[in-house]
C-alpha cells in the first residue's frame, strides 16, 4: 500500500503548489501537462495566456459576476485557491497564479469548468495583487466573519475545484453532494464536473485521515467508496476510478477486519465486511489477492471479530472444493465455533459434530490441541472416563485402564503440560475429576469462547456449572449414558445368542449326520436328489454364508471399535457415524437375522424366508434410528411442539384445539407514517448494491438461516392466523399447512443458489409440437409425501428451457445497479406475502419494502422475525397502513418495481388512477400482479366407482373450504357433462362433503355481503354445513355462514365474471356432449371464454378415460389458457408446489389485465415459462394433506418441516417421515371412524332438491 500522508502534507503547506500526487488508495490523480488540445481548447489556452499577461486587469466583482440568472455564494478563500500566505507580495501572487494556470486538473473536467476556474483564479490574483484590495480582503478575513464569493451556477464546479484544491475537501464534499442531490436532472457535463470534484474531495479526506491515523482505515475506505460510487454514477474519470479501486484493494484486508469489528447492531456494514472476507480469502485467486502469504493470519484475525454463529455460517456457505482445501487450523476453528454455539444455545448434540470434526484432524500437527478439544467435548457430554482416556491419563490413579488410540504421545511437552495441569488441580490423586473440570473450564473460556468475538461488557464468563444446570443438557447426558449401557447389554446378548446357537448347531449336526447315514442306506429312486438332500445343500449354503459373515464381522469389529464408541452417542445415528461403524452395525443386524433363521426352524431358512424378513429388518433399523435421533432433534422439536395460546376473550387451548373457535374482528396495526416509509426506502436504496454483490452461496446461507426462523415461528404464525380466521375440524393444522410452501420455497431457492441460479430439472423433454416441458416437482425426498405426482413447467412456445438469466448475466460481469421493489401484500394468506418477498429478492434481484395488508398485518412482525437475516442486512423492510400508504409508496421515486396481490380494481387504481383503464397509465414502472380468478373445476365423465366419487367430491369441497373460501384459487364453478349418468351421484357426494364440514365465519371484510348477494341471485342454492356450537365462543366473534351450493345451472345463468370470494359453489352442466372428446373441447372453451381470469383451473379425469382419449386430453391441457393447471387435485396444490410457476397465463395488457401479469414461485428460475401442469394420481391414501379437516395435520406438519429440512440426511429424514406417517394414519382413522356419525347427521339435515341416483 502506498501511504497518502505525504501527499496530504505537501498540499497543506501554504504557498507550495501540488506536484505529482501519489497514485494510491484515494490519492488524487497525478497532475501532468495535458496532451495536444482540440481547437476549442487551444482558443481557451490562448485566452488564458492573455490573462497571465495582466492578472490585475480586473476586479473580483467583474470575474465572478454571472452574465444572467441567480448567483451562488461560496466560502472561497483566495489565499488557499492560489496557495499563498497572507501578506504575500504581488510577485509571489503572480507566480502562484501562473503555476495554478500551468497545472490544470486532468480528470475529465469540461472545457467550461476549466475556463471558469481560470476566470476565478484571475479574480483571486487581481484582488491579492492590488495593495488596497488585498488589505481590505485580509481585513475581512481577520475579522472571522467569513469571506464568500458570488459565482454563477455554471461556474459552481470551478469554484468547488478551487475549494478542493485549497484543502477545503470537507466543504467541497458537503456542498457538491447537496447540489447533486438537488439537481439530479441538470446537464450531464455540469453534474459530471461536480461529481468529479466531490470524488477528488473524498480522496483528499481519505489522505488526511490516513495521515492522522495510519492504523485506522475504516474512515478512509468509506471516503474512497463514496468517491468510487460518485464517479461510477456519473461515468466520470475512468483513470481516477482505477486508482481509487487500487487503493481500496490495498486497504481491503484491514478494512474488512475493521468492518467486522463494528458493533453487532451495524448489521449492514458488517455484512459488507463478510462480503469482503469471502472475496479476499476464498474467491480471488491467490496471485491476485492482496493477502498474499498472510491469508492464514488474516483468517485468524477475522475469527476474533465474528461470533461463533457467523463463523459457522461463513464457512458452511463455501463450495465443497473450497471447504475441503481449508487448512487444519481453520477446520479446528470450525470445530471450536460449533462448541461455542453448543454452549451458547445449550444444545449438546452440536458437541458431537464438533468431536467428529476434531477426530478428522487427529493426524495433524494439532494432535495435542485436538485431544484437549475432544476431552472437553466428552466432559461436557457427561463422559469423564472418555475425557481421561483421550488425555492419556487412563494409567494414572483415578483414571481408566484402556489406552487411548487418539491420546497425545507420552513425552510430548505439550501433552505433559496438559496432564500436569489436570493433576495439579486434583486435590485427591485418586480422583482426577476436579482437575479435568478445571481444564475444561479453562479450555471453554480461553480456547473456545476466547477465539471469537469478545462478549459485550458485563457478560458472564463461561461456566460449566451453568451448562450442566440446563435441563436439556442433563436429559441428553442421561440419554447418552443409557445408550452406552444399552450397547453394552446388546453386545452381551449377541454373544449369549451366538453361544446358544453354537450348541444347537452341534446338536442338529449330529442329527443331520444320523439322517444322512439313513439316507445312504436307502437312496432315492431313479438317482434323483431327494428333498432332504436339497434341504441339506441349502443348510450347507446358509452355514457358509454365516461363517463368511462372522469372519467379516470379526475383521471390521477391530477397525470400527473406537469409531463405534464415539459415534454411538451421536444423535445423527448412522447418518453421521464413520463408515466402519455403519458396516459393523449392518453386519451385526445381518448376523442376528441369519442366526434366528437357522436356529429357530427345523430346516435351514430358504432364501424366500430371508426376503420376508427384510421388511422387519428395515422397520427395526428405522425405529432404532428414530430412537437415537430424538435427543439431537429435541431443540428443534421444542420449537415446533404445540404450545398454549390464548384468544382475546381469555379462552385458552392447545395449538390444535379440539373444538371450533370462531374468529374475532382484527384491529389493524398502527399505520406507518410517510416519513417512516421514506426512511425505510432510503435504507433499502443504500443497501441495494450490497444485495446485488452478494454471491449465490452467501444467499444460500441466508436462506438456511431464514428457514430456521420460519420453522421456529411456525406455531406462532399458525396461532395468529387461527385467532383471526377461526379454527374448525383440523384445528391449527389448517393454518400450519400454510407455512409448508414457505419452507419448501426456502429449500428450493437455496438449492438454486447453490447451483449458481440454475438447479437442473428432474426431467426435460419436448412435446410433439416442439414445446419444451420440464419436470420440476416433486424432487428430493418429497415424493414420500406426494407419490405418483408429476409437476411440470411448460416453456413458452419457440423458447429454449433456459434458467437463471439474472445469475448468468451477473457471472458475466453485468450485475446491474440494483433496485428497490414494493410488495403490496395479500390480505388472505401468509405464504402469498412470504413467497412474493422471496421472488422479488432472488428472481428479480431487488431489495424489498413490504406493505402489509391491514386485513392480516398481524403476520408482519412474525415475518420480520422469521426473515431476520434479510432485515438485518438492510435488504427487507416492512410498512403498515391502508390504501393511502400503499399509494404513497407506489409513487415514491426510489421504488422502481411493484408487485401486488389483490383485485383488478386495485391494479387499475394504482396504474391508471381510476377504475376505468383508459388512456395512458399514470404509473410508469414495472408492475406485476396476481389478481384472482373464477376458478373452474372440470369433471370429465368416466367409469367412476363409489370410492372415486367420494374421494374427488371431498377434494372439490376442500378446494372451496380452505381458508373459508377466501382464496383466489377457491373452487367456484364445477363444469360437468349433463349426459353423464354418474352426475347425480357426484353432486350428492359433493353436497354430503360440504354438509359434513362445519360452517365457516366469513372473516374477510366484505365477504358476508358477497354471500348475501349470491343467495339473492340463486335463491334455490342449498345451504349446507354442520353447525358450530355457540357455547364457549369469544365474545364479539364473527357469525358462521353455511356453504351455498347451486347446481343444475345453465352455461348462461352461472356467475362467471366476478369472484365470489367465499363459501359458494356453482355447478354448470354442459348439454349436447357426445362423449369425453366433445366434453373436453366444450369445457375448455367454456373455461377459457366464459370464466373470468386465467390464473388456475383443475381437471378431474379417470385413468381409463385419459388412456382412451389421450389425444383429446393432451389437447385440452395445451388449450387451457391458465397459468396453473392441476389434474385430479384442487388448484391449491398447484400453489403449494413452489417449483411450479404461479401467475396469470401470459398475454394480458395493462388495459385488460385480467388475472395479472408475471409469474412468481418458479424456484427453478426458468426464463420463459408459459404455464405449469401438475398431475396427481387418481387415488391417494391416507387422507390427502390438502383435505380440510385433516385431523392429524397439526401434529404431522412439524415433523414434515423437519423431514423437508433434513433431506440431505436420509436417515434423519426417514425418522421424521415415520412420525408424519403415524399422524397421517391416525388422522385418516379418525376421519373414517367419524364418517358414520357424520353420515347420520347429514341424513338428519338432508338437503332437499338433490338425489344421488340410488348410488348412496
Please, could you describe this protein's structure?
Helix 37 (904-911) links the parallel strand 11 and strand 12 (926-930). This protein has an eleven-stranded mixed β-sheet with strand order 5-6-7-23-19-18-13-14-17-16-15, with helices on both faces. The relative contact order is 0.06. The longest helix is centred in the middle third of the chain and has 51 residues, at 471-521. With 1256 residues, the protein is α/β, with parallel strands linked by helices. Helix content is 54%, strand content 8%. It is globular. The chain contains 46 helices and 23 strands. Residues 1-69, 397-406, 520-532, 560-658, 1232-1240, 1242-1249 and 1251-1256 have low confidence and may be disordered.
Mean pLDDT rating: 78
Oligomer: single chain
Please mark out the parts with pLDDT under 50 across 5 or more consecutive residues, or reply none. Answer: 1-69, 397-406, 520-532, 560-658, 1232-1240, 1242-1249, 1251-1256
* Relative helix content: 40-55%
Keywords:
disordered N terminus, disordered C terminus, eleven-stranded mixed sheet
Topology:
Elements: H1 5-12, H2 39-53, H3 60-64, E1 72-74, H4 78-82, H5 90-102, H6 111-129, H7 131-142, E2 149-151, H8 156-165, H9 169-182, H10 188-212, H11 218-234, H12 238-260, H13 267-283, H14 295-303, H15 308-316, H16 320-324, H17 328-345, H18 349-359, H19 367-380, H20 384-390, H21 413-424, H22 433-448, H23 464-469, H24 471-521, H25 531-568, H26 579-599, H27 607-640, E3 645-646, E4 652-653, H28 674-693, H29 696-725, H30 733-736, H31 740-754, E5 763-766, E6 772-777, E7 790-795, H32 805-811, E8 819-824, H33 830-842, E9 846-851, H34 859-866, H35 868-872, E10 876-879, H36 883-890, E11 897-901, H37 904-911, E12 926-930, E13 935-939, H38 946-961, E14 971-977, H39 983-996, H40 1007-1017, E15 1022-1024, E16 1043-1049, E17 1064-1070, H41 1076-1089, E18 1096-1100, H42 1103-1108, H43 1110-1119, E19 1124-1127, H44 1131-1136, E20 1141-1143, E21 1156-1157, E22 1159-1161, E23 1169-1175, H45 1193-1205, H46 1210-1244
Parallel strand pairs: 8-9, 8-11, 9-10, 11-12, 13-14, 13-18, 14-17, 16-17, 18-19, 19-23
Antiparallel strand pairs: 1-2, 3-4, 5-6, 6-7, 7-23, 12-21, 15-16, 20-22
Helix pairs in contact: 1-10, 2-6, 5-6, 6-8, 8-9, 8-10, 9-10, 10-11, 11-12, 12-13, 15-17, 17-18, 18-19, 19-20, 19-22, 21-22, 24-26, 24-27, 25-26, 26-27, 27-46, 29-31, 29-34, 31-33, 31-45, 38-39, 41-43, 45-46
Amino acid at each position: 500500500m502506498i501511504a497518502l500522508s505525504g501527499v496530504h502534507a505537501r498540499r497543506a503547506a501554504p504557498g507550495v503548489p501540488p506536484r505529482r500526487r501519489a497514485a494510491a488508495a484515494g490519492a488524487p490523480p497525478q497532475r501532468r501537462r495535458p496532451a495536444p488540445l482540440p481547437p476549442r481548447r487551444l482558443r481557451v489556452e490562448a485566452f488564458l495566456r492573455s490573462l497571465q499577461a495582466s492578472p490585475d486587469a480586473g476586479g473580483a466583482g467583474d470575474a465572478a459576476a454571472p452574465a444572467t440568472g441567480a448567483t451562488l455564494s461560496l466560502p472561497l478563500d483566495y489565499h488557499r485557491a492560489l496557495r499563498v500566505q497572507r501578506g504575500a507580495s504581488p510577485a509571489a501572487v503572480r507566480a502562484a497564479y501562473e503555476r495554478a494556470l500551468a497545472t490544470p486538473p486532468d480528470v475529465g473536467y469540461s472545457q467550461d469548468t476549466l475556463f471558469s476556474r481560470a476566470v476565478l483564479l484571475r479574480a483571486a490574483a487581481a484582488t491579492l495583487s492590488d495593495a488596497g484590495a488585498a488589505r481590505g480582503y485580509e481585513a475581512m478575513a481577520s475579522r472571522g466573519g467569513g469571506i464568500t464569493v458570488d459565482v454563477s451556477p455554471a461556474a459552481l464546479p470551478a469554484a468547488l475545484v478551487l475549494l478542493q484544491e485549497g484543502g477545503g475537501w470537507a466543504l467541497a464534499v458537503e456542498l457538491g453532494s447537496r447540489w447533486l442531490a438537488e439537481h439530479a436532472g441538470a446537464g450531464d457535463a455540469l453534474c459530471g464536473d461536480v461529481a468529479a470534484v466531490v470524488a477528488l474531495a473524498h480522496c483528499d479526506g481519505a489522505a488526511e485521515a490516513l495521515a492522522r491515523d495510519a492504523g485506522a482505515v475504516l474512515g478512509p475506505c468509506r471516503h474512497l467508496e463514496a468517491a468510487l460510487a460518485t464517479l461510477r454514477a456519473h461515468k466520470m474519470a475512468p483513470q481516477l476510478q482505477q486508482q481509487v479501486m487500487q487503493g481500496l484493494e490495498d486497504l481491503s484486508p484491514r478494512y474488512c477486519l475493521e468492518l467486522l469489528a463494528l458493533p453487532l447492531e451495524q448489521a449492514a456494514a458488517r455484512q459488507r465486511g463478510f462480503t469482503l472476507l469471502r472475496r479476499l480469502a476464498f474467491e480471488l485467486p491467490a496471485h491476485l489477492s492482496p493477502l498474499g502469504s498472510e491469508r492464514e493470519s488474516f483468517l485468524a484475525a477475522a475469527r476474533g471479530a465474528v461470533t461463533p454463529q457467523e463463523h459457522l455460517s461463513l464457512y458452511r456457505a463455501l463450495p465443497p472444493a473450497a471447504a475441503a482445501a481449508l487448512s487444519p487450523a481453520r477446520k479446528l476453528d470450525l470445530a471450536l465455533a460449533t462448541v461455542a454455539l453448543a454452549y451458547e444455545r445449550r444444545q449438546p448434540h452440536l458437541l458431537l459434530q464438533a468431536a467428529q470434526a476434531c477426530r478428522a484432524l487427529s493426524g495433524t500437527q494439532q494432535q495435542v490441541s485436538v485431544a484437549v478439544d475432544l476431552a472437553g467435548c466428552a466432559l461436557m457430554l457427561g463422559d469423564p472416563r472418555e475425557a481421561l482416556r483421550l488425555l492419556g491419563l487412563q494409567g494414572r490413579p483415578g483414571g481408566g485402564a484402556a489406552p487411548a488410540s487418539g491420546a497425545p504421545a507420552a513425552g510430548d511437552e505439550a501433552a505433559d503440560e496438559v496432564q500436569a495441569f489436570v493433576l495439579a488441580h486434583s486435590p485427591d490423586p485418586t480422583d482426577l475429576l476436579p482437575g479435568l473440570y478445571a481444564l475444561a473450564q479453562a479450555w471453554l473460556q480461553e480456547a473456545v469462547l476466547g477465539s471469537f468475538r469478545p462478549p459485550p461488557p458485563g457478560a458472564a464468563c463461561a461456566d460449566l456449572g451453568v451448562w450442566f444446570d440446563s435441563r436439556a443438557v442433563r436429559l441428553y447426558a442421561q440419554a447418552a449414558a443409557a445408550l452406552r449401557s444399552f450397547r453394552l447389554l446388546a453386545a452381551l446378548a449377541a454373544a449369549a445368542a451366538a453361544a446358544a446357537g453354537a450348541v444347537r448347531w452341534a446338536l442338529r449336526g449330529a442329527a443331520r449326520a444320523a439322517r444322512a447315514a439313513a439316507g445312504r442306506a436307502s437312496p432315492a429312486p431313479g438317482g434323483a436328489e431327494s428333498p432332504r438332500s436339497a434341504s441339506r445343500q441349502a443348510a450347507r449354503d446358509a452355514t457358509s454364508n454365516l461363517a463368511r459373515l462372522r469372519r467379516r464381522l470379526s475383521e471390521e469389529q477391530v477397525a470400527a471399535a473406537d469409531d463405534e464408541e464415539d459415534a454411538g452417542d451421536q444423535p445423527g445415528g448412522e447418518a453421521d457415524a464413520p463408515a466402519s461403524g455403519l458396516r459393523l452395525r449392518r453386519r451385526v443386524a445381518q448376523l442376528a437375522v441369519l442366526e434366528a433363521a437357522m436356529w429357530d426352524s427345523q430346516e435351514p431358512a430358504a432364501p424366500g424366508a430371508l426376503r420376508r424378513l427384510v421388511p422387519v429388518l428395515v422397520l427395526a433399523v428405522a425405529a432404532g434410528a428414530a430412537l437415537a435421533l430424538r435427543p439431537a432433534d429435541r431443540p428443534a422439536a421444542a420449537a415446533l411442539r404445540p404450545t398454549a395460546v390464548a384468544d382475546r376473550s381469555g379462552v385458552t387451548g392447545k395449538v390444535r384445539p379440539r373444538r371450533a373457535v370462531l374468529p374475532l374482528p382484527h384491529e389493524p396495526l398502527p399505520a406507518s407514517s410517510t416519513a417512516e416509509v421514506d426512511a425505510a426506502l432510503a435504507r433499502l436504496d443504500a443497501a441495494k448494491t450490497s444485495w446485488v454483490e452478494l454471491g449465490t452461496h452467501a444467499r444460500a446461507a441466508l436462506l438456511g438461516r431464514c428457514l430456521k426462523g420460519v420453522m421456529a415461528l411456525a406455531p406462532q404464525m399458525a396461532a395468529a392466523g387461527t385467532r383471526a380466521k377461526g379454527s374448525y375440524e383440523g384445528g391449527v393444522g389448517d393454518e400450519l399447512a400454510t407455512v409448508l410452501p414457505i419452507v419448501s420455497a426456502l429449500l428450493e431457492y437455496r438449492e438454486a443458489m447453490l447451483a449458481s441460479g440454475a438447479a437442473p430439472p428432474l426431467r426435460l423433454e419436448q412435446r410433439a409440437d416442439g414445446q419444451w416441458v420440464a419436470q420440476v416437482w416433486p424432487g428430493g425426498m418429497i415424493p414420500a409425501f406426494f407419490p405418483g405426482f408429476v409437476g411440470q413447467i411448460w416453456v413458452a412456445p419457440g423458447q429454449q428451457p433456459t434458467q437463471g438469466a439474472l445469475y448468468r448475466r451477473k457471472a458475466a460481469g453485468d450485475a446491474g445497479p440494483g433496485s428497490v421493489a414494493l410488495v403490496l401484500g395479500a390480505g388472505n394468506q401468509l405464504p402469498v406475502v412470504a413467497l412474493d418477498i422471496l421472488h422479488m429478492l432472488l428472481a428479480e434481484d431487488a431489495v424489498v419494502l413490504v406493505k402489509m395488508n391491514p386485513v392480516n398485518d398481524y403476520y408482519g412482525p412474525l415475518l420480520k422475525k422469521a426473515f431476520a437475516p434479510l432485515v438485518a442486512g438492510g435488504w427487507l423492510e416492512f410498512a403498515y397502513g391502508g390504501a393511502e400508504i400503499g399509494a404513497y409508496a407506489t409513487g415514491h421515486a426510489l421504488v422502481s418495481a411493484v408487485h401486488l396481490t389483490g383485485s383488478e380494481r386495485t391494479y387499475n387504481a394504482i396504474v391508471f388512477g381510476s377504475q376505468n383503464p383508459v388512456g395512458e397509465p399514470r404509473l410508469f414502472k414495472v408492475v406485476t400482479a396476481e389478481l384472482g380468478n373464477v376458478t373452474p373445476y372440470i369433471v370429465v365423465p368416466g367409469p367412476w366407482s363409489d370410492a372415486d366419487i367420494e374421494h374427488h367430491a371431498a377434494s372439490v369441497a376442500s378446494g372451496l373450504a380452505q381458508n373459508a373460501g377466501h382464496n383466489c384459487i377457491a373452487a367456484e364453478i364445477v363444469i360437468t357433462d349433463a349426459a353423464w349418468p354418474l352426475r347425480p351421484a357426484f353432486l350428492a357426494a359433493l353436497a354430503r362433503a360440504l354438509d359434513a364440514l362445519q360452517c365457516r365465519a366469513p372473516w374477510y371484510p366484505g365477504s358476508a355481503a358477497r354471500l348475501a348477494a349470491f343467495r339473492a341471485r340463486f335463491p334455490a342454492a342449498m345451504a349446507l354445513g354442520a353447525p358450530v356450537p355457540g357455547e364457549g365462543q369469544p365474545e364479539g366473534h364473527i357469525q358462521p355462514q353455511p356453504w351455498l351450493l347451486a347446481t343444475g345451472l345453465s352455461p348462461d345463468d352461472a356467475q362467471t365474471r366476478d369472484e365470489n370470494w367465499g363459501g359458494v359453489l356453482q355447478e354448470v352442466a354442459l348439454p349436447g356432449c357426445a362423449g369425453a372428446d366433445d366434453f373436453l373441447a366444450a369445457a375448455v372453451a367454456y373455461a377459457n371464454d366464459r370464466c373470468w381470469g386465467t390464473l388456475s383451473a383443475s381437471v378431474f379425469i379417470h385413468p381409463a378415460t385419459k388412456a382412451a382419449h389421450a389425444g383429446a386430453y393432451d389437447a385440452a391441457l395445451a388449450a387451457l389458457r391458465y397459468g396453473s393447471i392441476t389434474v385430479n387435485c384442487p388448484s391449491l396444490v398447484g400453489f403449494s408446489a413452489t417449483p411450479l410457476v404461479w401467475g396469470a397465463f401470459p398475454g394480458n395488457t395493462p388495459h385488460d389485465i385480467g388475472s395479472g401479469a408475471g409469474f412468481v414461485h418458479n424456484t427453478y428460475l426458468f426464463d420463459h415459462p408459459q404455464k405449469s401442469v401438475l398431475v396427481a394420481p387418481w387415488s391417494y391414501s391416507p387422507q390427502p394433506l390438502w383435505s380440510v379437516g385433516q385431523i392429524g395435520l397439526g401434529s404431522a406438519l412439524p415433523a414434515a418441516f423437519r423431514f423437508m429440512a433434513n433431506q440431505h440426511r436420509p436417515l434423519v429424514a426417514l425418522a421424521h417421515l415415520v412420525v408424519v406417517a403415524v399422524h397421517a394414519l391416525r388422522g385418516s382413522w379418525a376421519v373414517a371412524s367419524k364418517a358414520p356419525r357424520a353420515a347420520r347427521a347429514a341424513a338428519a339435515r338432508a338437503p332437499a332438491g338433490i338425489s344421488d341416483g340410488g348410488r348412496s
